[in-house]
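TICKET: design request
STATUS: open
ATTACHED STRUCTURE:
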């Protein structure tokens, strides 16, 4: 899959995306849909969060595939 990734460094420099999404801890992972809506957000990534994130990604991709088949 192709997706964009933003690396904002260590948070010491101004980043308009970090400010707009109100990120105040690092690492922060945010899953956005194609319209910029936050589908999932978390800090750090343990096994439970990784599974939840993977489930949300697969669910969103499945929804898009079903819409494309109509």
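STATUS: resolved
RESOLUTION: sequence designed for all positions
ATTACHED SEQUENCE:
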């Amino acid at each position: 899959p192709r997706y964009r990734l933003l690396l904002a460094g260590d948070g010491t420099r101004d980043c308009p995306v970090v400010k707009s999404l109100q990120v105040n801890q690092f690492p922060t992972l945010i899953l956005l849909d194609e319209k910029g809506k936050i589908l999932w957000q978390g800090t750090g990534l343990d096994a439970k969060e990784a599974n939840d994130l993977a489930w949300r990604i697969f669910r969103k991709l499945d929804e898009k595939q079903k819409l494309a088949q109509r």
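CLOSING REMARK: The chain has two helices and two strands. Helices lie at 16-20, 47-69.
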